[in-house]
């Protein structure tokens, strides 16, 4: 299925019933809905000087931070930013994180981060991240896993307690 957004993008495809990557026609704004197709825009990060080590290479811990930045942007794009989640009593702690470093980055590099819902169960979300440089080379791949708890630390059953949020994540699960 083709949509009206430029480049190769991930989006929810009603024809296939899940998030897919398709060639799109013309560039538009960040994370917008076109009819029933929701287009996810990549998160862009520019490597800062303080993120590099003595050798001028990005310190490995920063890639995890960028995953968090991309996750926050992803949730904002689907209409469920962190402030909204916390205001209604949903806390989403990280339960696991993994990074595979493929290529070094340095100060000033522009890194695009693609976020995909790899797996979603009622109490667990697994997001996959692919980071690419301006040449389109993969510099890092990783994932993060998250639970859902209330402010008292009790597990939340999203389907029953927050069906709209559950539905939004379910539609994006591969």
Can you give a write-up of this model?
This protein is of the alpha+beta class and 174 residues long. 21% of the residues lie in helices and 36% in strands. The chain contains four helices and nine strands. The strands form two sheets. It has a five-stranded antiparallel β-sheet with strand order 5-7-8-9-6. A four-stranded antiparallel β-sheet has the order 2-1-4-3, with no helix packed on it. A hairpin with a 2-residue loop joins β7 and β8 (124-132).
Summarize the structure.
The chain is of the alpha+beta class and 174 residues long. It has four helices and nine strands; from the N terminus they run βββββααββββαα. It has helices spanning 61-77, 82-87, 158-161, 163-172; strands at 7-13, 18-24, 33-34, 37-40, 43-46, 94-101, 110-121, 124-132, 138-147.
